[in-house]
Structure formats: structure tokens, C-alpha cells
Inverse folding.
């Protein structure tokens, strides 16, 4: 779907003529006030049920959606550069959501990935976009991407991202970032060719905290290709945009490209607890599809206490968000799964098992991940956890919510105590042979152990 | 109405996030000639309780902000009285805080700033996307004892080192403690760039600040 110019110009107009709201007031009064009022009005307070991490009450999810439409209508999305709110009428917002496609493709040739809207417990396998933009050193990038691209469950690639550019620190918002955009595209195209997956779709540009990486890497000669790749537009919390985001959108329009709109809400942050975060995420998703005209994406909750979303409150909140979007829209909603433990640990794989199963049964069209070791450490990402997460995501398609909830309750005790202080694990170089791209015996044994435990818990991973 | 009633009213107003009540009890304190420093201490105790609730996950950021707003409503009245009486209120110290250049994430920074203020520090929040030169200038302008730098992204974390290097070049490094934090920061990284301390949580950052200043 190409970006409509009239809608783009309307967004820019609203960003410059909408009501003035100072960012501090937005964060500390507007968002908390409206979220709290709508939670109360729709009877959504204290509905989080940690004993049932996968919500079973679909009427509740529908109520969250209706409340979120109200939130989106009342608050809109704040442009931090102009300090103005981009607002629509409720009818305009719903029309914007309806205008998003129920299906689209990325990639080309035999590697085309077909994204479709998914229902709750939909048997259609979802799309696995992997990994997240975890920083890696330049010498590790190629073997790592080659190893990940060779995994059949991987449908598209987003990360990793470079820690340095030709030996220099990659500074956000600097010429280094501009150069890194194209450098990363070239590195990806080289690695996927070596893995025999030339046509695989790419999310651009992982190494782009500001707009410079996208300007330097997308739609230019040798860069990411607008006809088969997609521009990442990642909005800051809480329901905000910026010139940087809008420049990515404008650049995607100029190049005839498509956009992915993403954001998140922190449990414990401006929106409050797990219920507030879920409500904020759904409202933000409605705004993302209106402001960025994206074909894929969503906002997802994430717990400040664990800096991940694989603990009970975050899982419950995540499930409600995707259930609400699945049942009330035809969007191709994408989530991100934020694990906290590092490679070569059981904890990482158990986090993936429960989180990916949840997203598969709650109607996510696609997921991007993993965020091994919370994305904190350079080179802490390996192909084996990518493979495991993809296996779970695809093979749990079609499972009932009740069955998934039972399995989650069997697996959570195996890792939830570690979430506050997760094991760092090992780097790619420590637990992989970079020449053969095979995991160490220890890492393979951990994978086999957790997979057996997941099967014993009822997960269809045979 | 006793002095205890008024001090209890001040504490309750903060705990119940009620700025109007906080202002009312502050005015009562002034009218009844209660020592304004004692009244301010009651407010600090109340916000400390809220901070503890936040630290153990029972309360969330909006609670913290609402309590801080209630406290501010009373503080303005009581500090005017402190000045009127020619008294001096001893603060814990001056902190400059901000998110480094290239990074627009502010939630963690706002939590730390709010908790530091609640603990009794004078906090100058420079906001997000702050250039290294602006941090260095603020350290001088405000005569800060602590500089707190936030960065969420691995691509913006090196900016923290740039700030520290500029402080060193300006011969300011010895007069200010530098603490770093943010989603992408680790203790190893903090040590490698020459920061004085790191903590992964907002309450932890307050403890760290007190430790570094030997409070």
C-alpha cells in the first residue's frame, strides 16, 4: 500500500496547527488523566489476572478496544517538536484504521512473506521477523546474519545493528548514522545472498535512532529497496511522534515505500499498571495506523520492573492488546517480544516459549524478536534462540486460549523468579563456532532440554 | 486545631495527591506560625512514603508525579514563609539531569528526577536530546554536585562518554560526580567510560547519589 499524499499532508498540517500541549503536561496530566478516566468509565480497573496470564475473557478485550478508541479520540498523538496534538474525529480515526490493509507482502521471489490479519487461535502461521536491532561488532555481523537467515522459520530480517561503522563509534544523529544506513543495507544483502535467501524482506533501518539512518539507507542506490523492504517508524512513549518520525514517513513517501509503525507503553510508567499500559498501547496503535499509514506494527506493553514483557502482568497486558486488535480490526498487527536473559540460558528460551505462544494464539500477525539479554550487551544474540522462538510462534498457531494459558502456567514457574535478575548468558562468539555456524554442545543441550520441557507441558513442537 | 493536625494534614494531602488540600494545610501552618522547616519535613516524609511504594511496585509513575505536584503546591507557600522569616533550608545537594544528545527517551530520566526532588535534592532537568556542551555549561551554572545522564539506546550511550570527556577537558570532572543509567547501560559500560556510578532503577539512583555524596 502506498502512502496517500493527502493524508500525509493532513498529518503535517495537524502537527503544526493542532492544539498546543506542552510535553510535560502531556506526560504527566493528559495521558495519566485520560487513561485513568477511561479505565474507570469502562470498568477496566484491576482486571489484570496474573493467575491467568493469557486473558480468557474476550468481551473484556473488546471493552479495552472501545475504551482505546475513546482515548485516541480525546488525546490524539503529540508531536514533540511542535508541542501540538495531532487529533482526528472518532469517525476519521476508525476510517483510518479501516484503510490499512488486511494483507500485504514483503520480500520478493520465492522469499515473499505474506502478512495477513489473524484471528484468535488462527491456524495460519504468523510471520517471524528476526532478530531485533541488537548491537553487534562488525566482524560478527556477517556470520550472525548468515546463520539467522538460514533458519527456515525466519520470514524477514530487522536486526542486528552495527556497534561501530568502519571502526568508529556509531553516533546517533551524526554523519556516522547517515553512513551506517547504507553500510547496513549492503551488509544485509551480502549476508542473505550467502545464506541463499536473496529475496527475504528487510525492516529498515535498525541502525537508525534518528531519521538519518533511514535517509542514508532506504531507497538510495545500493540501499534498502522500497519495492520489497519497509521503513521502521518507532514512536516515543506515550503516544508521541516527532519530526524525526515524520521525516522517516516523508522519506518513505518520497521513495514509494511502506511503513511499519511501532511504539510501546511501560507498565509502571505514564499509563500506570498493566491495564493502563494495555489501554495506552491499543490507543497508540490506532494513532500509528492513522498518522503513519503503516501496513504493519502496533504498540506493546513492557514492564519497568523487569525491563521485559515475559512476566505475568506484562504477558496478560500483551495478550489483551493483541486480542483487542485481532477482534476489532483487520490490521496486520506486529508485536515485539522483550526477553531479559541472554543466549545459552534456559531462562531465555522459557521466556520465548511463553511469550511467542501467547502472541501466536492472541492474533498477532507477526512478531519481531528476540531481544536476547534485553538487548543490553554487544554480540549477545545467536541463531539458536531465533530458531526456537520461530518454532514456537508458528507451531502454536491454532491452539486455544485455554490450552495456551495452561501451558503458560506450567512453564512460568521455570523462569519467572529470575526475571528481576536475569542471567546474562554467553555472547555469540562464546557459544557458537563462527566458522561452522554451529552452537556449542552446551547451548544445544540447553535448547534440547527446554524444547523437551515445552513439549511435556503440551506445546506442539514435535 | 493542633500543630500535629496540620502536619498530618500536609502528609495526607501528599499521600492522597491533593494539591488543593496541600495548599490549604500549608496556609494553615503559616497562619498558626508553625516552623515552616518542620512543615517542609512533613512533606518530605510523605513523598518518601510514596517513593517507597513506587520502589516496591505498588505505585506507578503517575502516582509519583501526582504526589510531587501536591507537594509542590504546599512547598511554594512554605518556602515563601522560610524566606519571609529569614531562615535557611539545608538541601541535600544540586543535581543536573538529562537524556543525552540523539536520544529522546525520557521516562526513566523523569522518574529519577522526581525521586531525587522528593528526596530533597535540588534538581535541574535539562530534558531530552541534550548536547554534551549544554550538560557541561549547566554543571557550572548550577554548581552541581551530581550530573545524571540517561541513554536508552546502545547507539546513544557513547554520548555519555563524550560528556565525561568534555567535563575533563573543562577541568570540571573532579568537582562533580557523574552517574549514568538507561535501558542500554550496564555497570561494565559505566565503569569503562569513567562514570562514578550506575544503577538500573530509579530508587537505586537516589541511593547511589546519596552514597556518592556521603549523605
Amino acid at each position: 500500500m502506498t502512502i496517500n499524499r493527502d493524508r500525509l499532508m493532513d498529518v503535517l498540517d495537524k502537527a503544526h496547527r493542532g492544539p498546543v500541549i506542552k510535553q510535560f503536561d502531556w506526560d504527566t496530566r493528559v495521558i495519566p488523566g485520560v487513561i485513568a478516566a477511561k479505565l474507570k468509565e469502562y470498568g477496566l480497573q484491576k482486571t489484570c489476572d496474573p493467575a491467568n496470564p493469557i486473558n480468557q475473557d474476550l468481551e473484556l478485550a473488546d471493552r479495552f478496544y472501545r475504551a482505546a478508541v475513546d482515548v485516541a479520540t480525546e488525546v490524539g498523538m503529540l508531536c514533540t517538536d511542535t508541542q501540538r496534538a495531532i487529533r482526528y474525529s472518532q469517525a476519521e480515526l476508525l476510517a483510518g484504521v479501516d484503510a490499512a490493509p488486511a494483507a500485504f507482502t514483503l520480500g520478493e521471489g520465492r522469499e515473499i512473506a505474506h502478512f495477513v490479519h489473524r484471528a484468535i487461535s488462527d491456524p495460519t502461521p504468523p510471520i517471524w521477523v528476526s532478530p531485533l536491532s541488537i548491537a553487534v561488532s562488525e566482524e560478527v555481523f556477517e556470520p550472525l546474519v548468515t546463520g539467522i537467515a538460514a533458519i527456515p522459520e525466519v520470514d524477514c530480517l530487522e536486526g542486528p545493528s552495527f556497534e561501530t561503522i568502519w571502526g568508529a563509534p556509531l553516533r546517533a544523529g551524526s554523519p556516522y548514522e547517515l553512513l551506517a544506513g547504507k553500510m547496513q543495507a549492503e551488509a544485509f544483502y551480502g549476508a542473505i545472498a550467502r545464506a541463499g535467501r536473496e529475496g527475504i524482506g528487510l525492516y529498515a533501518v535498525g541502525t537508525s535512532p534518528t531519521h538519518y539512518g533511514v535517509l542514508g539507507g532506504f531507497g538510495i542506490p545500493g540501499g534498502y529497496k522500497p519495492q520489497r523492504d519497509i521503513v521502521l517508524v518507532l514512536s516515543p512513549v506515550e503516544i508521541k511522534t516527532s519530526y524525526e518520525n515524520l521525516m522517516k514517513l516523508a522519506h518513505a513517501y518520497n521513495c514509494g515505500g511502506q511503513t511499519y509503525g511501532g511504539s510501546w507503553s511501560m507498565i509502571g510508567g505514564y499509563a500506570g499498571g498493566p491495564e493502563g499500559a494495555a489501554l495506552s498501547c491499543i490507543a497508540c496503535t490506532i494513532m500509528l495506523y492513522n498518522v503513519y499509514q503503516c501496513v504493519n506494527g502496533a504498540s506493546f506493553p513492557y514492564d519497568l520492573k523487569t525491563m521485559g514483557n515475559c512476566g505475568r502482568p506484562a504477558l496478560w497486558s500483551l495478550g489483551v492488546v493483541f486480542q483487542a486488535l485481532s477482534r476489532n480490526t483487520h490490521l496486520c498487527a506486529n508485536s515485539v517480544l522483550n526477553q531479559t536473559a541472554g543466549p545459552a540460558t534456559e531462562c531465555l528460551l522459557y521466556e520465548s516459549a511463553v511469550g511467542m505462544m501467547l502472541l501466536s494464539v492472541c492474533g498477532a500477525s507477526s512478531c519481531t524478536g528476540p531481544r536476547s539479554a534485553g538487548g543490553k550487551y554487544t554480540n549477545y544474540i545467536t541463531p539458536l534462540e531465533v530458531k526456537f522462538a520461530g518454532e514456537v510462534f508458528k507451531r502454536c498457531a491454532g491452539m486455544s486460549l485455554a490450552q495456551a494459558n495452561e501451558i503458560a502456567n506450567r512453564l512460568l514457574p521455570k523462569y519467572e523468579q529470575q526475571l528481576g535478575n536475569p542471567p546474562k548468558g554467553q555472547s555469540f562468539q562464546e557459544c557458537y563456532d563462527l566458522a561452522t555456524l554451529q552452537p556449542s554442545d552446551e547451548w544445544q543441550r540447553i535448547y534440547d532440554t527446554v524444547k523437551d520441557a515445552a513439549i511435556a507441558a503440551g506445546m506442539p513442537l514435535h | 486545631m493542633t500543630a500535629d493536625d496540620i502536619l498530618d494534614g500536609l502528609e495526607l494531602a501528599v499521600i492522597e495527591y491533593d494539591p488543593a488540600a496541600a495548599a490549604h494545610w500549608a496556609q494553615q501552618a503559616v497562619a498558626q506560625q508553625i516552623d515552616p522547616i518542620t512543615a517542609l519535613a512533613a512533606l518530605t516524609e510523605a513523598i518518601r512514603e510514596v517513593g517507597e511504594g513506587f520502589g516496591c511496585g505498588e505505585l506507578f509513575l503517575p502516582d509519583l508525579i501526582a504526589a510531587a505536584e501536591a507537594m509542590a503546591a504546599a512547598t511554594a507557600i512554605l518556602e515563601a514563609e522560610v524566606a519571609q522569616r529569614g531562615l535557611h533550608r539545608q538541601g541535600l545537594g544540586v543535581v543536573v539531569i538529562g537524556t543525552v544528545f540523539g536520544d529522546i527517551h525520557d521516562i526513566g530520566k523523569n522518574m529519577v528526577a522526581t525521586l531525587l526532588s522528593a528526596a530533597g535534592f535540588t534538581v535541574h532537568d535539562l530534558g531530552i536530546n541534550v548536547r554534551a556542551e549544554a550538560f557541561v555549561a549547566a554543571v557550572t551554572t548550577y554548581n552541581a554536585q551530581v550530573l545524571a545522564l540517561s541513554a536508552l539506546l546502545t547507539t546513544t550511550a557513547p554520548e555519555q562518554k563524550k560528556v565525561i570527556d568534555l567535563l575533563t577537558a573543562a577541568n570540571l570532572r573532579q568537582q562533580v560526580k557523574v552517574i549514568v543509567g538507561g535501558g542500554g547501560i550496564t555497570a561494565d559500560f559505566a565503569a569503562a567510560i569513567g562514570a562514578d556510578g550506575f544503577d538500573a532503577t530509579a530508587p537505586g539512583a537516589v541511593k547511589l547519589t546519596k552514597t556518592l555524596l556521603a549523605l
Notes: Chain A has a mean pLDDT of 96.
